[in-house]
Input
Amino acid sequence: MSDPITPLAKANIPNPKDGEIVAVAEDIWWIKMPLPFRLNHVNLYVLLADDGLTVIDTGIYSDHIAQCWDALLAAPPFTDHPIRRIVVTHYHPDHIGYAHSLSERTGAEVLMSQIEHEKSMALTTLDDVAFADMMIKRYRMFGFDQDILNALAERGNHYSDKMTKTPDAGYIQAGDRLTSLSGDWHIRCDRGHSEHHIGLYDPARRIYLSGDFLLPRITPNIATPLAAAVDDMLGHYFAYLAEMLTWGDDWLVLPGHDWAFHAVSTRAAGLIRHHQQRLAQLLDHADHAPLTVKSAMDALFPMELNEHERYFASGEAHAHLYHLVKQNAMICAPDQHGVDYYELR
Ligand SMILES: [Zn+2]
Output
């Protein structure tokens, strides 16, 4: 979600336009793939090894993205080298959506973390009714009005809309390595923005492919998981950010959205402050009256939200309230209609 913390300065490297690919190093390319949302693009990366290319993330599945891939595949580096691997950072459709199709087109193996793969499988296999039922149950607990619940039934499975199907995948985990011509990439798995997100970093060159965990302009969405037990995602993200405070500001970060940047620790400090302010804001509101996820969302995001945005904003409000419960600052109890109320302890 958009945020008041100061955007970071751009690293001085070439920036691709929509649908374009630019070389960042002899063995790294950056693709800017358009998205039909307010967040209007996702960054994909390509690494070159002796045996061919590794593509990191793919964009959503749509006719337009298929055409973008048609154009990309008809030009270097794809005409010079085969795609051997597709690494998917996490299960969100803007990252995994086209992976099945790209794998079918190229024969490349898809690599993911097992948890993200199983998550994607679980969501794509739900039919429209089952998906809507899951969302209605969640939104009812959050305290949304009946008209919002009714609209969910019409929306159906908005996850599988943006992909054909979850690809078969080989599994990678923290500590695994991947090489490119000049790179020895360490794989890390982080929890917070998603449940087991893959990041890659090359310590010798100090280059970090951060996916959606560290972004230069917006704050990564931190939400309680769908179709899984509630988990303290904000607590996990704070642990990640605490580690990033130790990295310093001399890395080249190639993120999942917006532009490349250097200031890892500065950004981590800003994000910690941002989430602490939001927690303080909720405690302040709860001092006047118990909160629902909906009223917490209205306090944190006081703007008109469409359903796509409401989905992220409500998950984010829930993650903050649940973190306060885990920190023993609040207690949560349902009323007779099944709506959860959060009170100061
Ligand atoms: Zn994401």
Remarks:
- DSSP finds ten helices and 14 strands in the chain.
- Residues 90, 92, 193-194, 212 surround zinc ion (CB under 6 Å).
- Residues 264-286 form the longest helix (23 residues).
